[in-house]
Design a protein that fits this description.
This protein is mainly alpha-helical. Helix content is about 85%, strand content about 0%. This is DMT family transporter.
Amino acid sequence: MVSRSAHWWNNGRILALLAAACFSMKAIFVKLAYAAAPVDPISLLALRMGISLPAFIWLAWWAGGPPLPRGDWLGMAGLGLMGYYLSSLFDFLGLQYISAGLERLILFTYPTLVLLMEALVRRKLPNPRVWAAMALCYLGLLAAFWHDLRQVGDSTVWLGSGLVMLSSLCFACYYMGTGRYVGRVGSSRLTGLSGAMACGFVLGQFMLTRSPAILLDLPSSVWVLAGATALFSTVLPIWLAARAVERLGPSQAAAIGTIAPALTIVFGWIILHEAFSLLQLAGLVLVVAGVVALGKLK
């Protein structure tokens, strides 16, 4: 008889792998939605966050906790603004112009931005080994960027890469901010509250700039892909990652999560028929090696 602890939903490594796979599919779903119909990023993002909103509210309710002071509510709003609203908006905008693989590699470098922000706050430069690890990351990004530039052959790759880099910067700001509140609020409640507020920002922007009739005119395929983005690449991986951290600890769970860029590139090659080259492979290896090295140097 198989014990309850042997089930996959109690295996930290399987949970971490599933979380990485779900996160890696986000760019694939978004690119498929862009290909299915002429949908703009704000409308697609509104669909994603509108479908995600009930799950974020439930997560905040399920986590429970005492009433929050006004300052913490403002903090949740700020985290939602940076982490799930602006970061997602720049990401969706950038995915119009670059491959899913390059997008994932750019987002994956957010730890380097966190380290640079910490250095600014502490007014202390990183040590040479940290600089070397960051150099690996950006050398890999340069290789992956050159791969996309050769495939597309125009300046839109610069625009898309810049937008996704802004997305990574916003997520780094969110990551920095969580350290201030997670101890008081709790990780699940923080995620639920900041996510729900981000949904409000996104839906508010949509209502101010678009007509709701736009969503009704979209084909069912876009709704299905937006739902998949919300459920399988937003809500589910957050839950899976939280359970994986509970069982493995943050370091080991994060180490397993480094497979996400490779999965995005593989999914992009298989599902989107994106070009693959040794240059892109070299970029992947360098970025992952740099991020892993940074994790060990912290």
